[in-house]
Write a structure and sequence with these properties.
With 320 residues, this protein is an alpha/beta fold. Helix 1 packs across helix 5. It is globular. The chain has nine helices and 14 strands. The protein binds threonylcarbamoyladenylate and magnesium ion (MG).
């Protein structure tokens, strides 16, 4: 059975105990809700894959409370340290070589000699990680290939009965997953996300490398072609909508089609940050209207728009 509780300081020791006993705890982060397990235990991590129905074991992100804790898990070169200091705590994941003191298990690392590390800034995630005192492996708390959850209700819609505890911390502010940068060679962008490419390149003083050219395969996230998929078909770069289509707008461009069965505007004022925050919740809402197709207005690829477009392309990809 899945217990659901509002986040509170009293809850943290109990949540930490669930993790220590090998259970699953879904918790809010600033990006999306995570499905957490004790990263040290292959048995606990295996439950994540079972709950998500993941078709294969890709490496999971290990969440820790601080840079200091991360330094026990991974080896940080100059560039990795600069990025960690600039963006942690926050929506950035760094892939680095494992440190001799690393206790993230083999299953969470998918047997690799590297580890993906993230220090979330969300106060509930911070409180949970501090109470736990060990790295917590956590992919997004949704069934594999489905839309990532940005509210506790979304988690329960997908995973009720498959997770021991859901901590309700309200809506996630960023709304899509962390940016993943590999620091195994010249820093390379594995997945666009909550920190923009431009912000990262400004800190590095250099362009991000293209993955695959730095020997850091396997390439990024659930890199299945179809991912983040609603039930409805998704039609990108729409300039008009059919009478039976739902509309996912940006900047009011599809305003004339407001009368369609369901309509949401990612950001009426054209903000990339607001669009990222609304993306997954709006896809879910439009999908619930029961339409067969969702027409999506073009979203400029600037700032977090790169990550928004990445997720939209996956949502539109032919289903596996
Ligand atoms: O925002 C987020 O990052 C969310 C929240 C819950 O923190 N988490 C998330 O985790 O999206 P997950 O497990 O779905 O992301 C896993 C991805 C892998 O598919 C892979 O691309 C990358 O992280 N990754 C992790 N460890 C890696 C490694 N050692 N080498 C290469 N990629 C790695
Ligand atoms: Mg995911």
């Amino acid at each position: 059975m899945t217990a659901r509780f509002r986040a509170s300081p009293d809850l943290m020791p109990r949540a930490a105990a669930v993790l220590r006993e090998g259970g699953l705890v879904a918790f809010p982060t600033e990006t999306v809700y995570g499905l957490g397990a004790d990263a040290r235990s292959d048995e606990a991590v295996a439950k994540i894959f079972r709950a998500k129905g993941r078709p294969r074991f890709n490496p999971l992100i290990a969440h820790v409370a601080s840079l200091e804790a991360a330094l026990r898990q991974g080896v940080f070169d100059g560039a990795a340290l600069r990025l960690a200091e600039a963006f942690w705590p926050g929506p950035l994941t760094l892939v680095v070589p494992v440190a001799p003191t690393c206790d993230v298990g083999l299953l969470a690392r998918a047997g690799l000699g590297s580890v993906g590390l993230r220090v979330p800034v969300h106060p509930v995630a911070q409180a949970l990680l501090r109470a736990a005192g060990h790295p917590v492996a956590a992919p997004s708390a949704n069934r594999s290939g489905r839309i990532s959850p940005t509210e506790a209700d979304h988690v329960l819609a997908d995973l009720d009965g498959h997770v021991d505890l859901v901590i309700d911390g309200g809506r996630c502010a960023v709304g899509l997953e962390s940016t993943i940068v590999s620091c195994l060679g010249p820093p390379a962008l594995l997945r666009p996300g909550g920190v923009s490419r431009a912000a990262i390149e400004a800190v590095l003083g250099d362009r991000l490398a293209v993955p695959g050219h730095t020997g850091d395969a396997p390439v990024a996230p659930g890199m299945l072609t179809s991912h983040y998929a609603p039930r409805a078909a998704v039609r990108l770069d729409a300039t008009e909508a059919g009478p039976d289509e739902a509309v996912l707008d940006f900047g009011g461009r599809l305003g004339p089609w407001k009368a369609v069965p369901a309509y949401r505007d990612l950001s009426p004022g054209g903000s990339d940050v607001e669009a990222a925050a609304n993306l997954f919740a709006f896809l879910r809402a439009l999908d619930r209207s029961g339409v067969r197709s969702i027409a999506v207005a073009p979203v400029p690829g600037i700032g977090l728009g790169e990550a928004v477009n990445d997720r939209l392309r996956r949502a539109a990809a032919p289903r596996a």
